[in-house]
Amino acid sequence: MKSIFRATAILSGSSVISILLSLASAKVMALYLHPDGYGYYGLLQSFVGLAGLVTGMGIATGMVRMGARAVTGSDGMTISALRSGAWLLFSALACVALGALAVFREAIARLAFGMPGRGGVTLWMGIALVFTVAGSLQCGTLNAYHQVGALAKYGVTNTILSTLFSITAVLLWGVRGVVPAVIGGAVVGWLASAYFLRSEVGALPAQPDKRAILKAAGSLLRFGFPYTASMLIGTGVQLALPMVVLHLLSRESVGYYRAAAAISVGYLGFLVTAMGQDYYPRLSAACDRPQAMISIINDQHRLIMIIGVPLILATLALVPILIPVIYSPKFSPAVDILEWQLLGDIFKFSSWTMSFAILARCSSLTYFLTELVGGITTLLTTWLAVRWFGLSGLGISFLITYVVYYAVVWCVIRRDIQLVWSATNKKMMLGSLAAALFIRVLPSTRFAYLRTPAALALALAAGIYSLIFVWRTFMHESLGENVVSDGQKSTAATIPGV
């Protein structure tokens, strides 16, 4: 447990800086672009992210899944073949993607950006796409080597440089600076990841032949096809939601949705980073040991509850204040969306501890089916909730989606490795849901005026509990280490010749 805290602390330090810089960037974007321009910025980012899923073909994740074992086993030839094969695949896929964007540029501009006759924007996004995928591949390589410190430094460097570039572009050119901001952010990310990969990992440890490279590329591609299909119907649907909102409502509504989603994702961004860069490699290395996986999953879930719940409750308490402060009063319609999303975050992070285990251990088809359920639920609930509740339906659909997704991944992983939550995890989950529901429902009662102080009190209580739990965990493990150390010394003293 202590090693998980240590890795998360390293990644959290960089993420806090990243979050603060992202808030500064969001403030500038909101003031100079307004909801409509901010929605346009969000549409461009979502398109690059969605296209990156297809172009990347799961290469970076495949590097982690296959490379982590090779690195752990000091198999230099295998990891070298994987790295070379990954870049071979990237080159081919990037060429195909750029060709497709050139051919369908007008249709993409109309459907993805709501801008008929602006195919040039699609071509510019092609540049951002290539650098984004290349940077992701380099980060995947760092992750395969479990270079947590390098990834943390990369996160800070990338955020600082990309934020400065984006803010400068918008200050100079206003809405016209949105396209340069997206491209510049992608280029900066590629440069930063290239630097840390070169300095922390270095060149290939061996020189594989062409046959080994092609074999590694084939392995990555076989993993990548079903993985990409799974991501498209899961994460891909989430990335496509701004485009769905554009056609269901308006570009201004996209701005409100993006404002809420940025906070919902950003305030716990370090947990997402830790899960991808620390938790997933450890699961992959233990994928053939079910009992070890159960222990890892329970420890990670406990960590998420300890860190995440106080932050979720505190953010939920301050939502009416945060939106105007972070953005501007013009973004107040985003408040209702965010409140529902924060409630859904409890199910989201809890379910992710299990979905990562499915990705690390189960077949590609199993992972695909779980993501398919999530994607279909997202689209269906978004369409229905927006029709019934308007803009706030975007938050309601988020909550329903992750309740359904949680139930699905629980059934899958429970059947595969007989996962059982620890008593502590059960209590934390139930307690956090009760507190969040209480805060969300309180404004509908005659005690609505007590909402903020009650919510802050619950967040403080959860925070104190978490601190006590962390302290006891560290003290207990430290004591256990000392006892083991003393026992080893005592045993050594009684063995002849030692």
Can you describe what's shown?
With 498 residues, the chain is an all-alpha fold. It folds into two domains: 14-225, no CATH class; 286-476, no CATH class. Helix content is 87%, strand content 0%. It is built from 17 helices and no strands. Helix 2 crosses helix 11. The chain is globular.
First-residue to last-residue Cα separation:
32 Å
Q: What number of domains?
A: 2
Number of strands: 0
**Mass-distribution shape:** globular
What is the structural class? mainly alpha
What is the helix tally?
Answer: 17
Largest sheet, if any? none
Percentage of residues in strands: under 5%
Q: Mean pLDDT, rounded to whole units?
A: 83
The whole-angstrom Rg is 23 Å
SSE succession: HHHHHHHHHHHHHHHHH
Spans of 5+ residues with little confidence (pLDDT < 50)?
478-498
Please estimate the helix content. over 70%
Sum this structure up briefly:
By secondary structure, the chain is mainly alpha-helical. 87% of the residues lie in helices and 0% in strands.
Strand-helix topology:
Blueprint: H1 2-56, H2 59-72, H3 76-103, H4 105-113, H5 119-144, H6 148-173, H7 178-200, H8 210-233, H9 235-248, H10 251-266, H11 269-285, H12 290-326, H13 334-361, H14 364-389, H15 393-417, H16 423-441, H17 451-494
Helix pairs in contact: 1-5, 1-6, 1-8, 1-9, 1-10, 1-11, 1-12, 2-3, 2-5, 2-8, 2-11, 3-5, 3-8, 4-5, 5-7, 6-7, 8-14, 9-10, 9-14, 10-13, 11-12, 11-13, 12-13, 12-16, 12-17, 13-15, 13-16, 14-15, 16-17
